[in-house]
Amino acid sequence: MARKDNAADAANAGRLKQIALTYKMTRKADKRIGLVLAAVGLGTLGVFLAIGFLIGHPVYLGILGLLLGLLATAIVFGRRAERAAFGQMEGQPGAAAAVLDNIGRGWTTTPAVAMNRNQDVVHRAVGKAGIVLVAEGNPNRVKTLLAAEKKKMNRIVADVPVHDILVGAGEGQVELKKVRTTMLKLPRVLTGPQVTATNDRLRAMGDLLSNMPMPKGPMPKGMRMPKGGPKAR
């Protein structure tokens, strides 16, 4: 029992530390976060207390208001923290990879399956929606990179749908904060075994490229180093 209690205490301390760290990071980008959270929590409590006094049950409504106030505060904090995190990542190299890394179960992600010298990059995710290629970088340059990778996917797994997402704020692009939502809204057309088979084929192709003998001397212009295996999620 003592070990379980110690483990529970350690877990709670870890959560509180994580919440405090998240709050500090959010406050750097959102200076009013403290005032907003206080207004939400106290406002909710105040409304329920007022109703409680009107109907003659201030204690019951006060307890309910306190609980709902904490819940509302947590929801608002989570949304503003997420918005602040995306704001800090926006425009940073590898930001889309970080989003894919946290997309959730059922997806297998492989960052930087294609890249050029200007750090325009294409990431790949495989799930029940098929293959999703997520590109970030200069729109004019990365479109060529994205088209080449999509063509390669159609050759390797012609029976699997291939979607493409260009991260950005321009026309025809998807904002970084909406990438995960956009992917999760894609229709699910593959079964679990089909997803596994697709990953196996892509992994086999990657292993085949990595085992090819490299020519001596400097690397030819435009040639890309093969990437490692996919990262399962």
TrEMBL record:
Listed Pfam families: DUF4191
Domain of life, source organism: Bacteria
Keywords tagged on the record: Membrane, Transmembrane, Transmembrane helix
Bilayer-crossing regions: 33-53, 59-78
InterPro entries named among the record's database cross-references: DUF4191
Segments of this protein annotated with the region Disordered: 210-233
Amino acid composition bias (Low complexity), ranges on this chain: 219-233
The protein's name: DUF4191 domain-containing protein
Highest classification ranks of the organism: Bacteria, Bacillati, Actinomycetota, Actinomycetes, Kitasatosporales
